[in-house]
Amino acid sequence: MSPNNKRVYYYSLIASLGGLLFGFDIAIFSGAIPFIQPDLSLSPSQLGWVASSLYIGCAVGTLLFGKIAEKLGRKKSLLLVAIIFGASSIAMGLSNHKDTVVIWRIIAGFSVGGASVLSPLYIAEISPRNIRGKMVSINQLAVVIGILFAYITNYFLSFTELNWRLMFMSGALPAVLFLIFLPFLPESPKWLIFNGKKEQGLKILSRIIPPAQIQEEVAFIEGQQHSGKTSYSISAIVKQGFGFLLIVAIVIAVCQQFSGANAVLFYAPIIFDKAGMNVGDQLFLQILIGAINLISTLISMQFVDKIGRKRLLLIGSLGMSILLCLIGLSFSGDFFPSYLLSGFVIAFIGVYAATLAPVTWIIITEIFPIQIRETSVAIASAFLWVACFSLTYLFPVIINTFSSVQTFLLFAGICFAYFLFTLFAVPETKNNRV
């Protein structure tokens, strides 16, 4: 690895700690479910509301942090994310009423939404094209590490008296880690040059790309700058001729959520409870799910720049559709014995982690030109969080209203529809400039 690429790798690792916060917070609630539900006397719909309230903040955070990052830069915006996340994690653990938990989860979601936009955006902007996919995948790797850490934390804290409270408060630890390493990050050189700070941007570019490519890169950024920025609205993007790309990005973002993977990641205890498992087994299986999630993400990083984004989406959506059918049918006991359920679920998460999970964020950052990137990434991410809110709120109600078979066959149909959409509408972005 060249010295320039090493620096990009180190910077990407630090920035990806925002992804770790993201993964930790979305997963920590799943382990709290068996304890917070009886402690606060939550009905299925109330449980869905407490769980999904995080994503109201996420949707707002993606939109506002897109504008904040445009004005303040990527580095200062990431600092704000870490501070809000740490403070809200402690406050959630100290809450004594479901409404107070909801308020602090919305505030925490604001920082999680910001991290979901800023970390992959920053990494994409400091990475050369030939390794950009792998570097952005580091953020997804950090997300799944955060999920695994949350599952492990949940398992051990489940044996304590303050279980769900300590689970929430433990989120302050990765936030502090992020704050410690953030000072070592440079500002995005592309943001600096695009905002008239060419000399500072050139200094940073000289550290991360070969000297022969610097002038070409600067000319490209300045060319994008001269083409102008759009206002912060969907209508302005459509008028500039990028409406179809925005629709594609929104569909990709929404389908990642409604693929069923996050229902498994968020509500595995409920799913395994339907199969008759006790709480200890449920939380231990979550650790296995987190481990396969991590291993599959590592595998994906080796192929995302070789196979291409679109092909991975096709493989993932079709494979997940098939596995969701198997998961649903295993609940009935008529087609597959129920003990295969755990294996099907783990395989399903493995396929998701190797395909849809990392590729979604890569495409969203690659598909748009720089003059509308902050706005477009923020809009697509906001739709992602609205979909995530809807899924998280509705899943406890759906699985209690319909059978488990019907629930997972519905997700299978959505994945197959996504496969067809990808086949006919999604462009390959592997060689796009960022």
From TrEMBL:
Keyword annotations of the record: Membrane, Transmembrane, Transmembrane helix, Transport
Predominant localisation class: membrane
One Pfam family of this chain: Sugar_tr
Keyword Ubl conjugation: no
Residue ranges of the TM segments: 9-35, 47-66, 78-96, 102-124, 136-157, 163-185, 242-271, 283-300, 312-333, 339-364, 376-399, 405-426
Topology relative to the membrane: Multi-pass membrane protein
Subcellular localization, as worded in the UniProt entry: Membrane
InterPro entries (alphabetical): MFS_dom, MFS_sugar_transport-like, MFS_Sugar_Transporter, MFS_trans_sf, Sugar/inositol_transpt, Sugar_transporter_CS
Domain Major facilitator superfamily (MFS) profile: 11-430
Family: Belongs to the major facilitator superfamily. Sugar transporter (TC 2.A.1.1) family.
Protein name: Sugar porter family MFS transporter
Biological classification of the source: Bacteria, Pseudomonadati, Bacteroidota, Sphingobacteriia, Sphingobacteriales
